[in-house]
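I have been asked to look over a protein record a colleague put together. Alongside the sequence sits a line of tokens, each denoting a local backbone shape. Please read both lines and tell me whether the tokens look consistent with the sequence. Take the sequence as given and treat only the tokens as open to question. I have pasted the whole thing underneath without changing anything:
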Amino acid sequence: MTRRLLLAGTALVVLLVGYYGVTFMQVWVAARSDHARPAQAIVVMGAAQYDGRPSPVLRARLDHAGDLYRQDIAPVIVVTGGSQPGDRFTEALTGFKYLRGIGVPEASLRIENRGTNSWESLAAAAGFLRRDGITEVVIVSSPYHSLRVEKIAREVHLHGHASPARTAGGIGSLFQLGREAAAVAVGRVIGYGRLVDLDYKVKQVRR
């Protein structure tokens, strides 16, 4: 009996390691790919802002979204992201002001400013986009984040195609790729919305 349990445990570990390894490779490949194509809207995932000024990561995403807009990839840009305690500006409002400043017409910009993570932002954006008949979107984020945002988009009933913003950091550090692989691996099993709930509960326990 003990030997059978040991064999079963070993087989399970091998299976889990293999599953994670395959997922890691998929995250790595997605980080190196650009799936931009004509769509109905461009969705920019939020990132840190400093009192109304975009961080380098957010600025890279916004610049890339502006380039896609000028290439006629889509006629609408949705900026996303809420705020942290004490912030005067949301990530979305910062993105809105920046894009308007580089020549994107205000009429082409829409704001989602309630989300505090990728799932919340995409789910909230999907709600008003679908009401307008928009389901085909290009999602701009960091390279290592590409696979997960496409998976989340599918979960919230959008057809999402990741077009990563290239930065000096390349596709991401090994830690970032590894963390994303873990998030994708778990999210595939329990759902990305539930993954957000689980992460929130873990943070509450740690406090």
Q: What stands out?
A: Helices lie at 2-31, 56-70, 91-101, 118-131, 146-155, 174-190, 192-206.
